[in-house]
Amino acid sequence: MKKIGDINKIRRSVEKTLDPKRYEHTLGVAYTAAALAMRYGADICKAQIAGLLHDCAKCVDHHKKIAICEKNNIEINNIERANPFLLHAKVGSYIATDKHNIADEDIIQAILNHTTGRPAMSLLEKIVYVADYIEPNRLKAPNLTLIRAEAFNDIDKALMLILKDTLVYLDSLNSDIDPKTRQTYEYYVSKVRDNIISQES
Ligand code: DGI
Ligand code: FE
Ligand code: FE
C-alpha cells in the first residue's frame, strides 16, 4: 500500500472511534506534526501517522482501558490507577500496534509518551508532544503565542515551556503528577540551560 493510502485509511478509522471534537483535534495534531517535521527534517509521513493515532484511545471508557492493560500485561502505576485518563497513551500505543498494524517503534513511542513526555525523547516524540499542545484548535493554554513561535525555533525550549505550564496547571488543580512529567521537565530545563551555556562559550 502507498503511504498516502495508509494515512487516509488511518484517518477514516480514527474518525469512527473519536467524538467530533477529538477528531478535529487529531487532524490539527497531524497537520501541525507534519509542519514541525518539515521544519526539523523528520519523516513527514510518520509525523502524520503518529499525530492521527496519538489519541486513538481517548474515547475508550476508563474501565475498558484498565481491562485492556490488565489483559495485555501493560503495567498501571498508582497515578494512572487514580487518573485513568492518563492510560489513553499506553492503551493508544497498544491499539496502534494491534489494530492499526503499526510496526514502527518510533511512532509507537511517540503515542506512548505524548502525555507525560520522557527524558531524551526522539525527534518524532518531541514533534507529537509539541503538536498536541499547539495545534490550531487549542485555545485556552497560557503563552500559546510564544510557545507556537518557539516550537518552530527551538523545539527543546518549546517542550520546556509546555512542561513548565503543565506542571503549574496541575499544581493549581492539586492533581497527581506522574514522576515522568516532572523528570521530563527537569531534563529539558537542563538541556536548554546547557545549550545556552555552549552558545555563550
Ligand atoms: O489527550 P489530550 O487532551 O489531547 O492531551 P494529553 O494527552 O497531553 O493530556 C493533556 C492533559 O494531561 C493535560 O490536562 C495535562 C495532563 N497531564 C500531563 N501530565 C500529567 C497530567 N495529568 C496528571 N494528572 N498527571 C500528570 O503527570
Ligand atoms: Fe492525549
Ligand atoms: Fe491530543
The mean pLDDT is 96
Q: Tally the helices: what do you get?
A: 11
Radius of gyration: 17 Å
Helix-strand pattern, N to C? Answer: HHHHHHHHHHH
Structural class: mainly alpha
Amino-to-carboxy terminus distance: 50 Å
A few lines on this structure:
This protein is an all-alpha fold and about 200 residues long. The protein is about 70% helix and about 0% strand.
Features:
binds 2'-deoxyguanosine-5'-diphosphate, 201 residues, 11 helices, binds fe (iii) ion
Structure description:
It is a single chain. This protein is mainly α. The chain is 70% helix and 0% strand. It has helices at residues 3-17, 20-40, 44-53, 62-71, 78-82, 87-98, 105-112, 123-134, 144-151, 155-172, 179-200. The mean pLDDT is 96. It binds 2'-deoxyguanosine-5'-diphosphate and fe (iii) ion (FE) (2 copies). One fe (iii) ion is lined by residues 25, 29, 54-55, 132.
Task: Draw up the topology in text.
Blueprint: H1 3-17, H2 20-40, H3 44-53, H4 62-71, H5 78-82, H6 87-98, H7 105-112, H8 123-134, H9 144-151, H10 155-172, H11 179-200
Helix pairs in contact: 1-3, 2-3, 2-8, 3-7, 3-8, 4-6, 6-7, 7-8, 8-10, 9-10, 10-11
The protein binds 2'-deoxyguanosine-5'-diphosphate and fe (iii) ion (2 copies).
